[in-house]
Design goal:
452 residues, alpha/beta, Rossmann fold, de novo design (two linked rop proteins), 3 domains, 4-stranded mixed β-sheet, 8 strands, disordered C terminus, FMN binding, NAD, FMN, quinone binding
Length: 452
Amino acid sequence: MTLTSFGPANLIKRSAETHPLTWRLRDDGEPVWLDEYQTKNGYAAARKAFADMAQDDIVQTVKDAGLKGRGGAGFPTGVKWGLMPKDESINIRYLLCNADEMEPNTWKDRMLMEQLPHLLIEGMLISARALKTYRGYIFLRGEYTTAAKHLNRAVAEAKAAGLLGKNILGSGFDFELFVHTGAGRYICGEETALINSLEGRRANPRSKPPFPAAVGVWGKPTCVNNVETLCNVPAIIADGVDWYKSLAREGSEDMGTKLMGFSGKVKNPGLWELPFGVTARELFEDYAGGMRDGYTLKAWQPGGAGTGFLLPEHLDAQMYAGGIGKVGTRMGTGLAMAVDNTVNMVSLLRNMEQFFARESCGFCTPCRDGLPWSVKLLMALENGEGREGDIETLLGLVGFLGPGKTFCAHAPGAVEPLGSAIKYFRPEFEAGIAPTRAGELTQVVSPTMVGA
């Protein structure tokens, strides 16, 4: 599978007016280094931000543009920036880029970092100026060795050109940027777990409040944004709020464009920059080319392993948070996975829940014990050794590990696909109950068992 693909027969024409994230990409997939990046209007937005805009004006522009986080949660970026303290006496602040892209079926940030490292650096530079942060870290998934190599070279190029370091662009503003490779934990995608890991601590989420904007890295105000989020900032500053909002399709409540993709047994798996509001059917049929010959679409996930399964009849949903929400799940990262007719849903869910159970930080009991419990039950059903009541127990776990029941969002994301799979494909789960054990009841989870 290639990291990027530009539609049927590669006929999609990318331009700065319609594809702010990807128009600079090279057709050969090689990185765009500093000299080429600057010939493609690179760092022009940063120069504008430093020369012509007050710091608060940058924050307001991003807020007015409606930019939302692209890591999966979708929190408004300008609102998040506005939480940083206004007190000028607080002169130590940090900007963190969450590049710990460990969501299964997701590879969008990898493409940006490997092929357009300077776009991320420019986005962080403008953001640092707006937030008055003097130091930034790109917290990178440790397995992304090529991205680390390219980012480190790009940081060195920017520093040599006076775009990082001391007195940037003669403004008197200083900003140092470092690439920090993580040790490889899914939970580091949660921003406070990322902060703990950066500090050299165990990657456990922190209790909130206080939020990172007040108490973050080493106790100082900190802002954490996703790679794709930060890469949107230069275009917003360069071309303005009205233009950015105009990119989205009619009906979408989310503004701009989004990196979207499809994996699985589709004819043209890949990654595309598309306007918010495009339908999942367009993404699946026009870009991914539909299913390969001999396969049919059984189910699909809209944005990573932590989103619920949907059916083929849901493909007409618009790809934005509210559009996917209308059909019962979350958009997540926007990179969809097609499940074909040969896949057994019990086996697929057992595999997913094993991953989520392994990646739990172990801090809270529902997640630490509930996810392995789901794996045990799914393994029994997969092997035809399930008992009556196993499915009800799994559904009980879906409820008890849902939103608001655990310390962070790891467990709710882990059980969302499980609940949707049972909803749509319950007969496949029932088929795993052994006939000889049909009369044996397992202990079904009840609210009193977990102190509800």
